[in-house]
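REVIEWER CHECKLIST
Item 1: Sequence provided? yes
Item 2: Single chain? yes
Item 3: Sequence as submitted:
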Amino acid sequence: MNKIKPNPNSSEAEKARNLMRWATKAYIATELSPNTKPADAPGGKAMTVSSSHPYASLSLVALDHDATPYMMLSDLADHSQNMAQNPKTGMLFDGTAGYRDPLAGGRVTLIGTMHKVNNDRMLQRFLTRHPASKLYAEFKDFSLYRYNIQEAHLIGGFAKAIWVPAEDLKLDCNESQELIEAATSIIDHMNSDHADAINLIAEKTFRLDPGKWRMCGIDPEGWDLHNGHVHARCSFDQLVTTPAEARNALVSQTKEARTTK
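Item 4: Structure as written out by the authors:
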């Protein structure tokens, strides 16, 4: 995976969102619930740690247009049972891939709560970003969970740490409703009619290996692509809030890729 290199002129909130939007997975930390059953423990032995102990796990993630994280989790999983008792959850986005010294890379820790929700638009957005998840999306025990951000802690490398309040981290998407409503049609249109442009940007701009790259998400700050194995992200030079602005930005990126040697 390519290094995540934030624009040095970006605000701390923009740097944090950029790292989060690149991520396909995140670590979550919940508090062990006394109701958590050690079903997978040898012989069903009781836990030897306090129920107040933190419990870390890993899951796929997709961000909404305003940067709110969503996960699709099994209600039977330990972390889901923990959150049912105590929704306070930590979330870590790791942006250290590609660095010889991982501690020189960025990461974002979120403080907040996680709750089960019904949101058909976000479920579709999640499945578009993670197509393999369609295999179990209809299982009765799987649900969509929304992470409610209270604060974020950005670490951008050695001695580069700052707390970012949720109101600064999250985008106000009231002005981008047109883009939100058109996102699915934009993705479908790009994949069906402009696959050549997507592959051109992937290969020329990002120097990614040639392959069948597809758009798998779009938001005011950029768009996501994958080839079934690798994810990448292409940021816009400025926020886009309408389908017309998104089209202009994508055309500009395509033209730039065509002139790249």
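Item 5: Key structural point noted by reviewer: The chain has a mean pLDDT of 90.
Item 6: Recommendation: ____
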